[in-house]
Structure formats: C-alpha cells, structure tokens
Automatic annotation (TrEMBL):
This is dTDP-glucose 4,6-dehydratase. Belongs to the NAD(P)-dependent epimerase/dehydratase family. dTDP-glucose dehydratase subfamily. Its cofactor is NAD(+). SUPFAM superfamilies: NAD(P)-binding Rossmann-fold domains. Keywords: Lyase, NAD. It catalyses: dTDP-alpha-D-glucose = dTDP-4-dehydro-6-deoxy-alpha-D-glucose + H2O. Its EC number is 4.2.1.46.
Length: 324
C-alpha cells in the first residue's frame, strides 16, 4: 500500500506519519509513505526526524496547488490523507488569500489529481470550526455549516468540494472534523504551546476577552488514531466528527497550565478579544464511536502534563521557531 500524506511535516500530519511508521496501528502498515509538503513556516523537517531513516518514507517539497507536482505524485497511490492547510485563525483574520488558495484551490487540485490517478481512498482532514459556534449541546455531522472566520470558511468550502467529488465522480472520499488538537510538535503560535513556552520562560500569556470561550481539547494521538480508523473503515461520502470529550474554558485551560508550570495568576495578561471569536465548540462523536469504535485514550490532565514536559525537554525544537 502506498499512502500520500499532504502537510506531513506540520503538527498533526507529522504525528500521523510518526505513528504510522512507528507501527502504532497494527494492520495499517504502508510499503511506501510519501509526504507532500510545501514547507511553509509551519512545516518543519525536524518534525520527521524520528522517522527520517525509515526506507518507506519519501519527502517531496511541493505545493498542493501545483497540478504538475500533484500529477507526478498521485499515480500508484492507494490512499491520500490530506492535512495540508493554512491553519491559524488569527493569520486568516490578518489576510485570507493564502487560506483560500491552499485550503480551497489546493484541495480541489488534489481531488482532481486523485480522480485522474484513480486513487482508492481520500481522507480530507477538516475542523469543527466549519459548524460555527454552539451555546448548548453538540454538533452532529449533518449540522448546517456556518463558519465564522476566513479560516473556517475556507475549510468549509474544501469540505463541500470533497463531498462534491464523491457525489459527482463516485470517489471514495471521507471527511473528518476534529476539535482543538494539542500535543508535541505544535507550532508555538497556537494557544497551548505559546502559553507553555511563555510560562516556562517567565513571560506573561495573552488571554483573549473574558477567557470564557469553550474548546473541546483533543490529544493529537487520539486524533491521528481516529483518522486511521476513517482511512481504513470509513464509508465513502461520510463525515466523521473526532473529539476529545474534554471541554474547557480558555481560563480553565490557562489555570491548569499555570499550575503545571508553577506560575500564578499574575502571569495572565488579558487582551482584546479576537474578532468574531466563536464562543463554544462541541462535537458529537457518537457516529465515529458507534461505527468505527473510536474512543479517546488520553485524558486532558495527563495529556497536558505530558505536553508541558515535551516542551520542557525539547527547547531546541521550539526556540528557533519563536525567535524567527
Ligand atoms: N491544529 C488543530 O487544532 C486543528 C484542528 C482542527 C483541524 N485541523 C486541521 O488539521 C490539518 C493539519 O493541521 P495542523 O495543525 O497540523 O497544521 P500546521 O499548520 O501545523 O501544518 C500544516 C502543514 O501543511 C503544509 N502546507 C501548507 N500549505 C501547503 C501547500 N500549499 N502545499 C503543501 N503543503 C502545505 C505546511 O508546510 C505544514 O507542514 C489542517 O487541515 C487543519 O485545518 C487542525
């Protein structure tokens, strides 16, 4: 089996590649795994260092929006797992062009390439942010899409294109929509690595608005395990939510990080809220649990402690990223 992983040098993609090549999913052992990555600011060779010597891995630097590179890499592929994206909401507020280009045009280019090469399966990795914000309850997969940020809108657009390739061409496309991920190798612009590294260095952490926005935290290992289940057993044309089952306000999250790093409330610096900041995300994971046996394994308490320990032990990974 040959697997093509786009965005495999980013946070979640590289966790997936390390897990697959590390033999974490018995029965899901490709003969060849190709990472196609543009190596934007978020892509990093160091993320693949633990598996760099694995003979099954081939890393291709290329843009998913480039039909020539996609045409070159698709033939012979059995499965595409599509992570590549511009992923940071704040950057999409500052400027949305790259988000539409990579997330929408890039996804369409990949789907077209996969169609022409008759690729067996295509997993499109998306986000719960496509649903908007929910005050109570949780979103099932058929909830209407109401994305609020340019990032979320670009992901919702790509979801619809992925769905359309299934409906129109009968392609075996599945879509996953996950909640907020955390864990090792996450670029230190995202809230958990930003806060952890700031706290370890004696700096303050910027807390948006009243700090009461709620997120469901999902350890990246659980997310990747869920993607692997969908890649193997997901039904064509279906959407699967993937969540961690732990909802925290940003203030709760910050308090836990203060406690783990031995800092106090004076390290919190309230800042003006993000524009159109979604109040609460909550995914219903009944479908993937019942159909594919998905269960998150990493409790948030242990997951946060392990994550803080990883950033403490891997300064050489994140210091250059923060400095740059
Ligand atoms: N991080 C989260 O909490 C989260 C939550 C929900 C969904 N997602 C989705 O999961 C996927 C992976 O997210 P992440 O956090 O690992 O992102 P990331 O920003 O850490 O990594 C993105 C990767 O894609 C690559 N890339 C960007 N543009 C590219 C292009 N045009 N061509 C080829 N490669 C390109 C980057 O170099 C990088 O390696 C994304 O699709 C994102 O929307 C992430």
């Amino acid at each position: 089996m040959r697997v093509l992983v786009t965005g495999g040098a980013g946070f979640i993609g590289s966790n997936f590649v390390r897990a697959v090549l590390g033999g974490r999913y018995p029965g899901f052992e490709p003969d060849e795994l190709v990472v196609l990555d543009k190596f934007t600011y978020a892509g990093n060779r160091a993320n693949l260092a633990p598996v760099a010597e694995d003979e099954r891995l081939r890393v291709v630097r290329g843009d998913i929006c480039d039909p020539a590179i996609v045409k070159q890499e698709m033939p012979g592929t059995d499965l595409v797992v599509h992570f590549a994206a511009e992923s940071h909401v704040d950057r999409s507020i500052a400027g949305a062009a790259e988000f539409v280009q990579t997330n929408v045009v890039g996804t369409q280019t990949l789907l077209q390439g996969a169609l022409e090469a008759e690729v067996g399966r295509f997993v499109h990795v998306s986000t719960d942010e496509v649903y908007g914000s929910i005050d109570e309850g949780s979103w099932p997969e058929d909830h209407p899409l109401a994305p609020n940020s340019p990032y979320a809108a670009s992901k919702a657009s790509s979801d619809l294109i992925a769905r359309a390739f299934h409906i129109t061409h009968g392609m075996h496309v599945s879509i996953t929509r996950c909640s907020n991920n955390y864990g090792p190798y996450q670029y230190p612009e995202k809230v958990i690595p930003l806060f952890v590294t700031n706290l370890m260095d004696g700096h303050q952490v910027p807390l948006y608005g009243d700090g009461l926005n709620v997120r469901d935290w999902l350890h990246v290992d659980d997310h990747c395990a869920g993607i692997q289940l969908v890649a193997r057993h997901g039904r064509p044309g279906e959407v699967y939510n993937i969540g961690g089952g732990t909802e925290l306000t940003n203030r709760d999250l910050t308090t836990r990080l203060l406690e783990i790093t031995g800092r106090d409330e004076s390290a919190i610096r309230p800042v003006a809220d993000r524009k159109a900041h979604d109040r609460r995300y909550s995914v219903d994971i009944t479908k993937i649990s019942a159909e594919l046996g998905y269960r998150p394994q990493v409790g948030v308490e242990q997951g946060l402690r392990d994550t803080v320990a990883w950033y403490r032990d891997n300064r050489s990974w994140w210091e250059p990223l923060k400095a740059g």
